[in-house]
User: What shape does this take?
Amino acid sequence: MTLGADLVFRRTAEPDEHTVHPYIHLFSHQRSVGRMTRAVTFPDVVPQIRRPRDAEGRAGKGMGRAASGGGGEGAGGEPAPAVERTPSGKLKAAPAEAENSAAEDDEAVDLRFVQGDFLVSLFVSQPQASCCTELTACPRRPSSRTDPRMTRS
Amino acid sequence: MTLFFIDTASSLPAYLQQVYRSLKPGGVWVNLGPLLYYGTPAMELPLDLVVELARAVGFELEARLSVPEADYTADGEGMYSFRYHCEGWVMRKPRSRVLVIKDDL
Assistant: This one.
């Protein structure tokens, strides 16, 4: 987890920069060789805080918040972090309560980041592939395997 | 009829050949189940290649079956269940065997 967080939060500059083949290790339950060997890229956005640094190379106090300022409002009433798209196409974001982090250095900000300002989805579940709607079992049935429709033919 | 069965094979070709030999010419083989390979099988083929292997043994594919949500040994009143997405088929042993040599397998 520490390595994964370090990779995504500190060593990622471009969306979909990293490629893995997460399904290649398991032979069971595979529908085809093509699906088994398919690649997955991540992350879909780059979670990163960029702060201007002073002449000594230290992060400024509370500086560098995203231009959009106070952030949007989440559906649950919690303020969502402000996100804007930079000219290069990367996403940059500011924590929702950056005003209170004046005394924190970069390390502290990054920790806050990991602890819940953002959720990063590494793997998106694939849409379920069902090739026969006629035999699709209803999940409300006590047991799909006793579905009488299965016994024909 | 083989249900939740063919993935138990240590040698999948031997299984398929035995099914083939057991059928009369014109006989039908219906298979349905997951592909959970365990033990020390000699080969663990994905679904599409299992079908190809069966056709190479001599079967003729007549229909494909799919049961996407097959609950397996679950307590229906509990908080956990496990379900396979089962695939299957109807295959027939031809009445007259035509020897087909396939070199693309």
